[in-house]
UniProtKB/TrEMBL annotation:
The lineage of its organism: Eukaryota, Viridiplantae, Streptophyta, Embryophyta, Tracheophyta. Residues 1-31 are annotated as: Disordered. It comes from the Eukaryota. Residues 10-31 have a biased composition (Basic and acidic residues). GO terms for molecular function: cadmium ion transmembrane transporter activity; manganese ion transmembrane transporter activity. It comes from Quercus rubra. This is Uncharacterized protein. One of its GO terms (cellular component) is membrane. Its main location: membrane. It is found in: Membrane. Keywords: Membrane, Transmembrane, Transmembrane helix. It holds the Pfam family Nramp. Coiled coil: none annotated. The chain crosses the membrane at residues 87-109, 129-148, 168-186, 198-215, 287-308, 329-347, 378-395, 415-434, 446-467, 473-495. One of its GO terms (biological process) is iron ion transmembrane transport.
């Protein structure tokens, strides 16, 4: 009898050890080199005070926020910027500012989940929801990532076409851009700091390129300040306004940021150290998104100065922006066409690499895959590159066709936004998940209000798009059926969350009631 009990204890001990080793293996597979944050000699107590601010430590925590900020600078955002500038002039700059602030709040909540739990959002979703719901969330996240990646890869391909004087077609640029997967794997093997340094160079390249264009075109300083400080919105610019807000919240970026913050080694048992990490990540992310706002501002004002009120305003997009810039501003020592191409290439390359990174965490987290890094990168990259090459071969360089494609891709990503925001807000307010680091009731209401606003704005985009594009009985029935299933799943996610503010439900229902009357 005693022998059997000893055997059971030994088996249990071995199982625990196996689980621990698997967990460590999984962690080391994602981050082989975690950055160790230097700590002063302190007691082993759990509730340590937050250490004083240190510039050295801020530097050690700097990196994840800048990788996260790439999604605010991808080719899809740049296209939204140039169209907003060309059609609305300087009038939507205030909205760009507030959209960036809303995006910052969402990303800080994502970082909070990652730091406080030691796990990223995709892993937590797998544990929080039933199997079928987890698989649906995974599919939605993958679709959003594929849509974003197609835009990013095509943006890079357009830049390569510009810089090669048109010798390389779009499909060739897509294949060249696909090689970033191997650049990513090569740099990651040398440590996360090398990867972060690459992104710093790419962001600096964008900053210098678009700042050069800003200096060359000399936008009006007075109009720029008025655009930031004075809210203005006309019926003619509603679509561009929706685009400005819709481009800021990227579903895959919400998943990515919760994983990136785990590249720093933090002891979750020491509450003071966790709070310290949250403080530094808040500073770093705020700086990173301030820089992204300035870069987006440069692009918007350049096209506002050059094309607002012109006959080209309504037809400008990524595919022809370089041509219009060249016609407007000519050559010079450094032709503005090539400056634009360099900035666009930096935006496309950086965002496709972060897409590869996000794809690994999304697939690994939702499906609990334990694959080699190179194999996961190739699989997740193929999910996006194969359809992108097909798209490039089908659409080629037709401006009208690429514009239609871009509209559909924006719709695809807009549809996925609730499936990143609702799980995030559900988890970040749960004491069972977050412990003492769950958000308070005031921040919870603000976060749900921001999420509801973003979802309603994107809902407007979807309704506007489907009203104009959905034709035919069969297609209409398919869209209607899909819409019912879509809304039903969103309702399920909200009902599953016991953190959704009841007063917000009352407010929304009153709004719909008053609208109906």
């Amino acid at each position: 009898m005693n022998v059997e009990m000893q055997d059971d204890k030994e088996d249990s001990k071995n199982d625990d050890e196996t689980n621990r080793l698997l967990s460590e293996s999984h962690e080391s597979d994602e981050y082989e080199e975690k950055i160790l944050i230097a700590e002063a000699e302190e007691s082993d107590g759990e509730d340590l005070a937050v250490p004083p601010f240190s510039w050295k430590k801020l530097w050690m925590f700097t990196g994840p926020g800048f990788l996260m900020s790439i999604a605010f600078l991808d080719p899809g955002n740049l296209e939204g910027d140039l169209q907003a500038g060309a059609i609305a002039g300087y009038s939507l700059l205030w909205l760009l500012l507030w959209a960036t602030i809303m995006g910052l709040m969402i990303q800080l909540l994502s970082a909070r989940v990652g730091v406080a739990t030691g796990r990223h959002l995709a892993e937590l979703c797998r544990e929080e929801y039933p199997g079928w719901a987890g698989y649906v969330l995974w599919v939605m996240a993958e679709l959003a990532l594929i849509g974003a990646d197609i835009q990013e890869v095509i943006g890079s391909a357009i830049a390569i076409q510009i810089l090669s004087n048109g010798y390389l077609p779009i499909w060739a640029g897509v294949i060249i851009t696909a090689s970033d997967c191997f650049i990513f794997l090569f740099l990651e093997n040398y440590g996360v700091r090398k990867l972060e340094a690459l992104f710093a160079v790419l962001i600096a390249t964008m900053g210098v390129s678009f700042a050069w264009m800003f200096g060359e075109t000399k936008p009006s300083g007075k109009d720029l300040l008025m655009g930031i400080l004075v809210p203005r919105l006309s019926s003619k610019t509603i679509r561009q306004a929706v685009g400005v807000v819709g481009c800021v919240i990227m579903p895959h970026n919400v998943f990515l940021h919760s994983a990136l913050v785990q590249s720093r080694k933090i002891d979750p048992k020491k509450k003071g150290r966790v709070q310290e990490a949250l403080n530094y990540y808040s500073i770093e992310s705020s700086v990173a998104l301030s820089i992204s706002f300035i870069i987006n501002l440069f692009v918007t004002t350049v096209f506002a100065k050059g094309f607002y009120g012109s006959k080209q305003a309504n037809s400008i997009g990524l595919i022809n922006a370089g041509q219009y810039l060249e016609e407007k501003y000519g050559g010079g020592i450094f032709p503005i066409l090539y400056i634009w191409g360099i900035g666009l290439l930096a935006a496309g390359q950086s965002s496709t690499i972060t897409g590869t990174y996000a794809g690994q965490f999304i697939m690994g987290g939702f499906l609990n895959l334990r694959l080699k890094k190179w194999l996961r990168a190739v699989i997740t990259r193929s999910f996006a590159i194969v359809p992108t090459i097909a798209v490039a071969l089908v659409f080629k360089t037709s401006e009208a066709s690429l514009d239609i494609l871009n509209e559909w891709l924006n719709v695809l990503q807009s549809i996925q936004i609730p499936f990143a925001l609702i799980p995030l807000l559900t988890l970040v307010a749960k004491e069972q998940v977050m412990g003492v680091f769950k958000i308070g009731p005031v921040l919870e209401r603000v976060a749900w209000s921001v999420a509801a606003l973003v979802m309603m704005i994107n809902g407007y985009l979807l309704i506007d798009f489907f009203v104009s594009e959905v034709t035919g009985l069969l297609f209409g029935l398919a869209v209607a059926t899909g819409t019912v299933a879509y809304i039903a799943f969103i309702v399920y996610l909200i009902l599953h969350s016991d953190t959704f503010p009841s007063d917000l439900i009352t407010l929304i229902s009153k709004r719909f009631t008053s609208t109906g009357n």
